[in-house]
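Re: the 400-residue chain
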Amino acid sequence: MRILHTSDWHLGRSFHREGMLDHQAAYVDHLLEVIATEQVDLVVLSGDVYDRALPPVDAVRLANETFTRIAKSRADLVVTSGNHDSAMRLGFGAELMDSAGVFVRTRASSVGRPVLVDDAHGPVAVYGLPYLDPDHVREPWQLAGRSHEAALSEAMRRVRADLASRWPGTRSVVMAHAFVAGNLGADSQSSISESPISQSDSERDISVGGVSMVPTDVFDGIDYTALGHLHGRHTLTDSIRYSGSPLAYSFSESTHLKGSWLVDLDASGLSTAEFIEAPVPRRLARLRGEIDTLLTDPALAVDEDAWVQVTLTDPLRPAGAMDRLRERFPHALVLSFEPDGGPHPGLRTIRPEPGKSDHAIALDFVSELRGRPASGEEAALLLDACDSCSPDHDLDQEVS
């Protein structure tokens, strides 16, 4: 059986206010091409279909179109909910969709009941575990502890109990949405993993009481575990992998290679796993340096069409920095300032002094912050601002 493992689509998400829906739709086109060209039998989508519990209408429309297209393809589809999804909304109509070969699993009560898919070697039991909030399942499942490890350990107890009741030789696939890691030694990750195992800026913290990690041995004995939640691809063991998100959703993912895992199961279990790269609609670049260098360095020509995050190191904050940068990098989105040598060493709290006007205090603050006085135009603007806040509009002018 040939399986395509993907996760964390986050339909409806924007990238620093830039719409991503067209890029997400392009990924769906790529996905359908892979299904056809690689003769995929099953697609598993391990959570975070949407970016938020109440997704925008156009994101729901794209999800509907995607599920319909996959249902019409040669592949079946199993979908689970992630921590960004509303289990109730995503799971609406799940029983109706089963008949179309689209299996949406969002309820904790369904854990341990697999989707059965057959190939020439017999059945494959696909256990779709929705995101399991420990606080929600602790009481009904009578968990001994309040943690993701406790919740997933109970879920896997149910999975193993069901698997043990099935025909000998039934192969197993588990889908889970969690922060999974093990005792990662030098040889425990393949050379194509993003390392180290860590979270990106675009991932929502799911820790409970400061603890979120689930050890890999929770999934022992499963032929393939398709993980979601982390946005970078990772190989924890040969049979336990994160696909990562298909698109970069923060500049912290600028070095990620995006795509999905193409997994083959033979008669005895996992045979091979190959990473299929996804198209990159627009590169990400993180630039650092003084503004004049960034605007003139010929080596940065490759970044002129990228989404750009800039950190300026000029000792004094340049005026109109973003406008100037966008003349060369029209897709610059994020700008920060980190002067070489750290913050201005003379920066101090400006306190009111007897006989000193609000305008003079504001000018002192600007001078301290920048390391140079305000310009005449800036000083006039600050004076207007101070006058507008003063009960006596002549006060600042008189004291000044």
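The longest strand covers residues 269-277.
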